[in-house]
């Protein structure tokens, strides 16, 4: 990217001082700067911690006496301090190994056909971390059961969250994580901790000790398992192998928990287009019939299509997301306040074969507008039903585990809003030769700073707003 000089061209008369007139402002120029390309060969000396396997999860604990970072790696959980020094390590695999510290804690059968290496797909702090120093771990082995450790204790002792008598081959509320991917948001509601779980499933995952696509649970008071708050939603049995829902990100506000996923538009067709879906459940009443979904799109719409030769682009595939706020510069451009909740997403173009293109876009969604689009979509659906224009538009491909007799309106069904909600690419299609794989947005003074990880291992930092960025 280039640094640019600027020209002040204000239609303002000359300015006078006690010693005489000054030059008119319209003739003054900013200092001329020659364009300088960024030098990507510069090496920086930064503190780091080297793991033996790929890092699968990262959790930062700022509520401890000193900041700690917990790393979920294959077969291990590692804690490091803010200087990247190792504090402790807990072995979570391989299954059957004498080194595994969590393996013998739970009384659960081992499937000899399952992999022995544990991917730590879930790593989450207790929602009241300043009072309860608990870290919850759920892995890809042992049917996705979870463990809890008290990281303030001098000797780590994993607690098993699997109550054998309440679980079976066909019903397992304590089976949480899926080896295909799991996202969990842990919230506090009226002195109760709730886990909102989104898991990718197929016939193998639901065959024994089944996991569900969407579920809500709370830890038992006996601290040895979970209680199902809702029966949950899961993929229809006949679509388990053809319809994968890839959950990418989850976050919460005071009212709702949100899930972001990538899935096909038509579950019955394996060549249908991919879409990014945002699902929403209320925290106070997490019932199946309250579940809502809307399709999110990030678009590029050139203003001068005919002259420029550019075409509209729909970036349909979410790569990563970040929930936060906007600095003053970006907030003014987006016509929101600095207090408004913002969902940032980096998107790419995903073709019908599921292949991601080397092109990226960034869209900023004010959360209040997403909620408004959901609520308006449900209302429109109700009006159309009573106008006999069409049938209820419920969630596509998900089995609703509820008794819905007598409920005929969208307000009483898990509902997919029919109209996509979209925003425009902040980069105006300039990121046409890079694939973003992660995003973090921070605020320094009045500036909004975007930090982007790329598929080739680089980190790109961008500051500014919609019409000007560096």
UniProtKB/TrEMBL annotation:
Signal peptide interval: 1-17
MF-aspect GO terms: semaphorin receptor activity
Domain of life the protein comes from: Eukaryota
One Pfam family recorded for the sequence: Sema
Record's keyword terms, sorted: Glycoprotein, Signal
Database matches in InterPro entries: Plexin (IPR031148), Semap_dom (IPR001627), Semap_dom_sf (IPR036352), WD40/YVTN_repeat-like_dom_sf (IPR015943)
Domain annotation Sema: ranges: 28-470
GO terms for biological process, alphabetical: nervous system development; regulation of cell migration
Gene Ontology cellular component list: plasma membrane; semaphorin receptor complex
Matches recorded under PANTHER family: HEPATOCYTE GROWTH FACTOR RECEPTOR, PLEXIN
Name by which UniProt lists this protein: Sema domain-containing protein
UniProt source species: Xiphophorus couchianus
């Amino acid at each position: 990217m280039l640094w640019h000089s600027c020209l002040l061209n204000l239609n303002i008369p000359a300015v006078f001082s006690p010693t005489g007139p000054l030059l008119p402002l319209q003739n003054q120029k900013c200092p001329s700067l020659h364009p300088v390309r960024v030098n990507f060969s510069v090496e920086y000396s930064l503190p780091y911690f080297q793991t033996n396997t790929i890092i699968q999860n990262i959790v930062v604990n700022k509520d401890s006496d000193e900041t700690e970072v917990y790393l979920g790696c294959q077969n291990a959980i590692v804690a490091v301090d803010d200087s990247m020094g190792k504090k402790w390590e807990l072995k979570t695999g391989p299954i059957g190994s004498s080194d595994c510290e969590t393996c013998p804690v739970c009384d659960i059968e081992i499937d000899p056909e399952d992999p022995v290496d544990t991917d730590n797909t879930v790593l989450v702090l207790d929602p009241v971390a300043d009072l309860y120093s608990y870290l919850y771990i759920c892995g890809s082995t042992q049917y996705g059961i979870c463990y809890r450790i008290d990281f303030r204790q001098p000797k780590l002792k994993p607690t098993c969250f699997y109550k054998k008598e309440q679980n079976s081959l066909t019903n397992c509320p304590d089976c949480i994580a899926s080896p295909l991917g799991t996202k969990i948001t842990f919230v506090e509601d009226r002195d109760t901790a709730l886990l909102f779980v989104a898991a990718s499933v197929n016939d193998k995952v639901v065959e024994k000790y089944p996991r569900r696509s969407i579920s809500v649970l709370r830890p038992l008071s006996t601290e040895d398992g979970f209680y199902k708050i809702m029966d949950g939603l899961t993929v229809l049995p006949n679509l388990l192998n053809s319809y994968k829902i890839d959950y990418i990100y989850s976050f919460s506000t005071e009212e709702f928990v949100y899930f972001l996923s990538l899935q096909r538009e038509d579950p019955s067709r394996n060549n249908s287009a991919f879409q990014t879906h945002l699902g929403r459940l209320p925290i106070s009443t997490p019932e199946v019939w309250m579940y809502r979904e809307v399709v999110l799109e990030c678009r590029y719409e050139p203003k001068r299509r005919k002259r420029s030769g550019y075409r509209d682009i729909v970036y349909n595939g979410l790569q990563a997301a970040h929930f936060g706020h906007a600095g003053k510069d970006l907030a003014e451009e987006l016509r929101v306040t600095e207090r408004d909740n913002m969902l940032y997403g980096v998107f790419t173009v995903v073709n019908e074969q599921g292949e991601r293109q080397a092109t990226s876009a960034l869209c900023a969604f004010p959360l209040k507008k997403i909620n408004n689009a959901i609520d308006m979509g449900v209302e429109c659906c109700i009006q159309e039903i009573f106008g006999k224009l069409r049938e209820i538009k419920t969630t596509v491909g998900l089995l609703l585990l509820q008794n819905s007799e007598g409920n005929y309106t969208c307000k009483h069904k898990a509902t997919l809003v029919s109209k996509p909600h979209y925003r425009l690419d902040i980069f105006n299609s300039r990121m046409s030769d890079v694939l973003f794989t992660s995003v973090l947005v921070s605020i320094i003074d009045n500036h909004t700073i975007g930090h982007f990880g790329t598929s080739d291992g680089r980190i790109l930092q961008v500051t500014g707003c919609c019409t000007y960025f560096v």
